[in-house]
Amino acid sequence: MIECLDSQQGQAPDTSYLDVMPRLEFLSKRCNQLTKENADLQEDCDRLTTE
């Protein structure tokens, strides 16, 4: 999406890769955080179901 051309005008989109990098970095960190939280919750769930 970032590198695609507008087929009608033949121009790249206004949003450059550098413009979206901070958002991508934030989302990546948030995804990693949620993945860890999910793993922790899964461990708790597994522990509770074996008790």
Automatic annotation (TrEMBL):
Species of origin: Rotaria socialis
Domain of life: Eukaryota
Keywords: Coiled coil
Protein name: Uncharacterized protein
Ranges in a coiled coil: 24-51
